[in-house]
């Protein structure tokens, strides 16, 4: 090690995926399970008759012949199919207060939950309880609440369509629309923004469109880590010579080059396919400026071409026949100066014009985007500017073109489709009345932020969680953790122990469920479930592994049990529905006509695509057209006047699945064995008198958010990184201590995890602190 070396911080030399990925899988698997079992698990993943990978929502190719290899999907499977168990004996040995001090990794690394458990205040331990008794107590507690709107029903996006449909049915018959869900923290800006623009809250492309595009834009997503199967598609697109333009404040390896594990020649020769043809390090929050700059470029090119008697650059037919609002958009673009665009984006006019030229020259363009776009104070504005850009050249609703939001959880889109929403449509509510004969509530319920506010203020006293780790995923643990400890009832349907379960309420239950990899047998035999991917493809998923414990129940069965215990006069035939999931699908079809012939259509390998109106140029907006929508100005957060401020964005490491930390290896960014780092541009370090490896404190700029004094992360190690100037990045979920609960996109309620104005300073008492860090405790990490 040279003097400049910093422990656990190095360079990653290789391409994304490749041999490194194979080795990482082998390591992950060795840690969790017998290899024989694993191979069997992987072989049936994303196969026509196997289970859907719980890793991400990227679609499968139509005819999957050999299994689709993906490092992170394999890790997700190994993590679920682990041989480790979190048993009643384990809970007898450790109090909840003791477990609270464990790291997030250690908690889940204990393995699969095996028994229903109830928290016992006297001993501060979780004790085993029978299913019947647990469900009876939960039912009684829910019935005792003065009003159904005092309960919150959270959903994480792994839940199948069948589980999610029953869950919303139960909560609505109980009497509430309080459905905070992980989508509220994820693609809510898409769900709110796109319906206003194009009439649907989903992407418009299919996987086949990627075979026909002439240019691809990738904005604010990191496929090498989060959608690794997408690399195969990007590789094919790149091999066709199609330009791929990337806007991202960090240089991410998966977007630069990729070695295909499906492709022996590349693996053996250590060669790789370059992915991005041009990679722009945009400032965090600078995407609106970039998008407006590209649109300005189009207008200029159009004017020039027309003045020279050339063809139109804008698609005037499309604009005339299919859209409204072009005049307002043109005024806004004219009023936006290039100086302001350069300042806000951190990119030069000529760079943006280059991207604009690529866009203008391409007949068919797809724009992909992820959390770098949605998790901003102007997340909805970001999404709508992407739609504007596509619409200017008619790039929506035709082959090889469209908008492609990359969904997160493997069924987060499906959960929404089958009714997990705090703002239900009349179609859904009327459908419930028609099919089940009860009157569901019509008032708007709580989203994720509103649910935490209600719990904080004592307006909600019960929280039921269908999976997930709400407390840790949510911003502002200082507020969220405290709030959750004040609940009367907390119910967690889960596969693994996590921190949310340790925020004990007066009554707390952990209900262990089957995972997607496992065999699910009900009264009529073995069951399949269904999921919907990012491209609206619905298909069946059937687990093949023996359940982790004989006491596990499926999610649909648990929900039905809860409903029967809570609603003595229920109108729903819960037992019958759960006996055969085909009957749940019949009910989904009865409520939502889009699922016509549901059971028949999932028999086909690969399933079927739900109708997406905008893909057919049918615009389900109030105007009946696609709407150009103006976002005034470029500033994400005009309140921030401090010139010293940097913008913090939170990021995922390579070895993590949301709040699940598989390991401490962020391979592509060169970080090993630790997560207590902050990525900074070298020039930003230098201008603050800091250098690579220094211990630093990151604190929130006081004028921007509430209670700034408490919002500080101490003793992080500064890592000089290839990141846009003015931006710094730290790992999610730890950095949530810096994100205030009221820091969110006001249109969609998506927490603004990607843009917190912060100050970066050398930690005081360097050496003393360095020693302290080595013995850091969880309380220090989360500040509670
Ligand atoms: N292995 C693995 N797979 C996953 C997940 C996981 O945690 N692990 N999570 C799943 C879920 S729920 C989701 S939502 C998806 C998330 O998938 P992604 O959307 O890819 O999410 P992130 O990696 O968090 O962020 C993506 C990129 O945004 C960039 N970024 C940050 N701020 C900005 C900005 O202001 N502008 C732009 N243009 N870019 C910015 C970051 O540098 C990062 O490369 O992945 C899903 N798949
Ligand atoms: N700062 C910051 N915060 C963020 C984000 C960010 O980028 N930055 N991203 C946000 C995003 S995009 C999302 S989607 C949320 C994620 O929020 P969540 O979806 O709530 O979190 P996960 O970490 O995916 O949930 C992990 C837990 O799910 C349970 N689980 C796993 N599989 C199953 C299953 O099959 N069934 C059941 N019932 N339980 C299961 C396990 O107990 C595990 O501990 O976090 C958000 N929070
Ligand atoms: Mo997500």
Largest sheet: 6 strands, mixed
Q: Which structural class do you get from the secondary structure elements?
A: alpha/beta
What is the multimeric organization of the chains shown?
Answer: single chain
Relative strand content:
15-25%
Number of domains: 4
The stretches of 5 or more residues where confidence is low (pLDDT under 50) are: 34-38, 63-67, 775-784
Average pLDDT rating? 90
Q: What is the CATH class of the largest domain? A: Alpha Beta
Tell me roughly what share of residues is in helical segments.
25-40%
Widest sheet, order of strands = 5-4-17-16-15-6
| Annotated CATH topology of the largest domain | Rossmann fold
Distance between the termini: 36 Å
CATH architecture label name of the largest domain: 3-Layer(aba) Sandwich
Number of helices: 33
What bound compounds does this protein have?
A: ligand MGD, molybdenum atom
**Cα Rg:** 25 Å
- Tell me, briefly, the overall form: globular
Number of strands: 33
Cofactor: [4Fe-4S] cluster; Mo-bis(molybdopterin guanine dinucleotide)
InterPro entries: Asp_de-COase-like_dom_sf, MopB_CT_YdeP, MoPterin_dinucl-bd_dom, Mopterin_OxRdtase, Mopterin_OxRdtse_a_bac, Prok_molybdopt-oxidoreductase, YdeP_MopB
Protein name: Oxidoreductase alpha (Molybdopterin) subunit
GO cellular component, one term: membrane
């Amino acid at each position: 090690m040279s003097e400049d070396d910093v422990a656990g911080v190095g360079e990653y030399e290789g391409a994304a995926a490749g041999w490194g990925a194979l080795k990482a899988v082998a390591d992950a698997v060795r840690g969790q399970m017998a290899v024989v079992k694993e191979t069997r698990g992987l072989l049936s993943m994303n196969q026509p008759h196997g289970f859907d990978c719980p890793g991400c929502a990227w679609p499968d190719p139509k005819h999957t012949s050999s299994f689709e290899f993906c490092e992170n999907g394999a890790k997700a499977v190994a993590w679920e199919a682990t041989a480790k168990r979190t048993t009643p004996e384990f809970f007898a040995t450790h109090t909840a207060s003791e477990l609270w001090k464990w790291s997030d990794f250690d908690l889940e690394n204990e393995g699969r939950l095996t028994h229903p458990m109830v928290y016992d205040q006297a001993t501060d331990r979780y004790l085993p309880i029978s299913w019947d008794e647990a469900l009876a107590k939960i039912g009684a507690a829910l019935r005792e609440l003065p009003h159904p709107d005092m309960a919150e029903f959270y959903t994480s996006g792994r839940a199948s369509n069948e589980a999610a449909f029953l869950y919303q049915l139960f909560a609505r018959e109980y009497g509430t629309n309080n459905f905070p869900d992980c989508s509220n923290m994820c693609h809510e800006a898409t769900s709110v923004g796109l319906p206003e623009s194009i009439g649907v809250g989903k992407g418009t492309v299919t996987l086949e469109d990627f075979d026909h595009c002439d240019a691809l834009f990738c904005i604010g997503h990191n496929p090498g880590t989060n959608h690794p199967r997408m690399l195969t598609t990007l590789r094919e697109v790149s091999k066709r010579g199609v330009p791929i333009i990337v806007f991202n404040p960090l240089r991410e390896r998966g977007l630069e080059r990729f070695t295909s594990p499906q492709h022996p020649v590349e693996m053996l020769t250590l060669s790789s396919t370059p992915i991005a043809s041009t990679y722009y390090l945009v400032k965090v929050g600078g995407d609106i400026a970039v998008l407006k700059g590209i649109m300005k470029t189009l207008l200029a090119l159009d004017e020039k071409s027309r003045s020279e008697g050339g063809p139109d650059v804008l698609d005037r037919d499309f604009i005339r026949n299919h859209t409204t609002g072009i005049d307002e958009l043109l005024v806004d673009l004219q009023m936006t100066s290039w100086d302001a665009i350069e300042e806000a984006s951190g990119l030069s006019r000529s760079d943006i014009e280059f991207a604009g030229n690529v866009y203008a020259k391409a007949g068919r363009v797809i724009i992909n985007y992820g959390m770098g776009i949605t998790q901003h104070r102007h997340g909805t504005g970001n999404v709508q500017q992407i739609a504007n850009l596509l619409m200017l050249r008619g790039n929506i609703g035709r082959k090889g073109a469209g908008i492609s939001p990359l969904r997160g959880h493997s069924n987060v889109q499906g959960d929404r489709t089958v009714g997990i929403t705090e703002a239900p449509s009349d179609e859904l509510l009327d459908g419930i009345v028609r099919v089940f004969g009860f009157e569901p509530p019509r008032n708007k319920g709580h989203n994720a932020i509103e649910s935490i506010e209600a719990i904080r203020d004592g307006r909600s006293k019960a929280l039921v969680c269908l999976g997930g780790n709400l407390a840790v995923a949510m911003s502002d643990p200082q507020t969220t953790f405290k709030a959750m400890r004040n609940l009367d009832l907390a119910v967690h349907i889960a596969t693994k122990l996590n921190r949310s379960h340790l925020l004990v309420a007066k009554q707390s239950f952990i209900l262990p469920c089957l995972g997607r990899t496992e065999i699910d047998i009900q009264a009529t035999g073995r069951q399949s479930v269904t999921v919907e991917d990012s491209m609206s493809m619905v298909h069946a998923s059937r687990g093949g592994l023996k359940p982790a414990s004989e006491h596990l129940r499926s999610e649909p069965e648990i929900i039905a049990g809860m409903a029967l215990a809570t609603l003595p006069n229920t109108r729903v035939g819960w037992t019958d529905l759960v006996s055969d999931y085909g009957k749940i699908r019949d009910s989904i079809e009865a409520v939502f006509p889009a699922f016509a012939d549901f059971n028949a259509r999932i028999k086909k390998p690969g399933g079927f695509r739900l109708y997406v109106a905008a893909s057919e140029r049918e615009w389900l907006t109030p105007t009946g057209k696609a709407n150009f929508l103006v976002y005034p100005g470029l500033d994400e957060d005009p309140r921030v006047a401090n010139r010293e401020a940097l913008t913090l964005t939170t990021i995922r490491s390579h070895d993590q699945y949301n709040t699940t930390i598989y390991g401490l290896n962020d391979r592509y960014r060169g970080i090993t064995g630790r997560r207590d780092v902050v990525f900074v541009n070298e020039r930003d370090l230098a201008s603050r008198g800091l250098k690579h490896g220094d211990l630093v404190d990151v604190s929130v700029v006081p004028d921007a958010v509430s209670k700034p004094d408490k919002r500080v992360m101490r003793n992080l190690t500064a890592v000089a990184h290839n990141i846009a100037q003015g931006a710094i990045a730290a790992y999610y979920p730890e950095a949530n201590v810096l994100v205030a609960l009221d820091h969110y996109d006001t249109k969609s309620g998506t927490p603004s995890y990607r843009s917190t104005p912060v100050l970066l300073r050398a930690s005081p008492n360097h050496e003393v602190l360095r020693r302290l860090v080595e013995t850091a405790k969880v309380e220090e990490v989360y500040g509670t």
